[in-house]
Amino acid sequence: MDVPLANGSIVRSAYGGVLRRLIAYSVDCGLLFFGLLVLQAILFGVNPMVALMRTGQQFTPTQLHLWVFATVSTPSLLYFALILRSSRQATLGMRLLKLKVADAGGGRIGFGQSLLRSAVMLMPFELNHAVMFHLLPRDAPPPPSYFIGLVVFLALIAAYIATILLTRRRQSVHDLFAGTVVQRVG
To answer: What is the pLDDT of residues 101-113, one digit of tens each?
Structure first.
């Protein structure tokens, strides 16, 4: 596929497929997991929610959800948004798998575009957090709404993957929203 650049030159490009993108995303999630554990250990000595849970403290679903949003979701969103708009246009996982995110013309994306792409990309997982924290009772069997929430979460993940397979430029839902493409490099 030929991609015209803003300066008038044309670059040969192939788009990133599902497997390559999933592996890159898995690498990034693994790095984020360990990075966030280290960050919490540095900032808090030990995760205060874990420490309080050991004392028998009970937390509301909203408190737990806010804690995860503040200590996992927000740093993850910023990781993706800041790194994808950098000069490398790729997360660490993407660089390992020779992928980069570009705008429709093959150029670097701006912060707003990167933030939108990252927020839409992480949306299914925020839905999953809501399902897990608000619809799953601690001391009773799960109600039907919990299973409906899980089905919706899985359907969203399937839709994100299906759009990569079904669109000409291998764009997922978050790429379509932000007007980006994932290109193979090298």
So the answer is: 999 888 999 999 9
